Amino acid sequence: KNVPMLSGIVRWSSTGIVLHSIKRFKAISNYLQQVYKYTTTEVGDNKNCTMAEINSKPKEQHVDPWTAVAAEGEATINYDKLIKQFGSQRIDQTLLDRIEKSTGKPVHPFLRRGVFFSHRDLELILDAYDKKKPFFIYTGRGPSSESMHLGHLIPFLFTKYLQDAFQVPLVVQLTDDEKFLWKDLGAEEAHRLAIENAKDIIACGFDKENTFIFSDIDYISSSTAFYYNMIKIQKCVTFNQARAIFGFSDSDNIGKIAFPAIQAAPSFSNSFPHMFGTRKDIMCLIPCAIDQDPYFRMTRDVAPRLGYPKPALLHSIFFPALQGTRSKMSASDVNSSIFLTDTDGEIKTKINKYAFSGGKDTIEEHRKHGGNTEIDVSYQYLSFFLDDDKKLQEIKENYESGKLLTGELKRELIGVLQKVFGDHRKKRNALTDEEVKEFMTPRQFNLKF
């Protein structure tokens, strides 16, 4: 319990560890900080608790902007627990009905099926829209790979629906600076990946007259208004607050600590004077995966102090890795991901080889007991990409009854994904460098505000 981590000597009497020289034992010191934090937060005042007892405790689910892992012994992330933990609200049928009434269009399947399941202040956005008051959409992408994967596609497909349904402007932030700070990437390479990822985003079909896509490295260096908002946000958040929100440690570089203000700044309309002029009262709606919520809890806390409206949010569940629903798909693991540049053959191989099955070990057992769609990755992927609700329900019933085998379910998914990828590939390949540049150039927007 007595570990003076900020002094020159580290002592932990319960293990007999005595380290003299933080400089020489930096890695060990950082590890002990995490152990100390865990013991004081999880074990409390039980001084007789051993490390074996600590390690035997079931691990809780962990969700932050960089990691999403289900609790030990659980098959999936507990989203009800996240709603309670983050203090957001579940999207209910009343809210879905109101969206349909306001837009005059059916809600997106992602809303019907609970892919986007949680929100903050969506009612205020709908109030503004019903009163003919403007709002804009903001979403983003951290470019860490040559191509986006299936999970990255989810917020952009949904954002395309939002832009079409509400006919509002959109800003898309490409955080190449973040990936340089967090990953083993050079700044120039991170910037190149941002341009490549922009092509995947544009291929989703966004309205060029209503969409601005920007690289942080490019735009921050050219926009005084954006930089003003960055430093105003930075001044409002102390290091202790940032450490509590994001879990920064003493060994993190100062760029990481400063970055959250950069992700927060696009929430405010006057960060984009070429679009909104000097207006700072235009509301913002942010569709994102729920692991990004810490950034915007911070933003919502800062907004009133700067005289800005709080951004509203729509949260999505995670797109599961091929290996199972306990974690999200990650671009850093090629075997857990299906990339938008994968060929039809690669899609087939990855699904057949890696997609976790909820089926039984033998055909006989499966026919008798059926499969589990809650953990079956192929079914979960179909719930994102198969538009036909009736067919999806039929597949669910047949698989759970044992009528449909795992191999047949995988074949169904392969066909759906090959079509989605094929359509996207054609649009991406048809893009010219000039078209990409047009989307990414700050320019006057003729918005009717």
Can you offer a commentary on this structure?
The chain has helices at about 25-45, 50-55, 80-85, 95-105, 110, 120-130, 150-165, 175-180, 185-200, 215-220, 225-235, 240-245, 255-265, 275, 295-305, 345-355, 365-370, 375-385, 390-400, 405-430, 435-440; strands at about 10, 15-20, 60-65, 65-70, 90, 115-120, 135-140, 170-175, 210-215, 285-290, 310-315, 320, 325-330. The protein is about 50% helix and about 15% strand. The chain is an alpha/beta fold and about 450 residues long. A seven-stranded mixed β-sheet has the order 5-6-11-10-7-8-9, with helices on both faces. The chain is globular, with a radius of gyration of 24 Å. Helix 16 (about 345-355) runs antiparallel to helix 20. A hairpin with a 4-residue loop joins strand 1 (about 10) and strand 2. Residues about 1-25 and about 35-55 have low confidence and may be disordered.
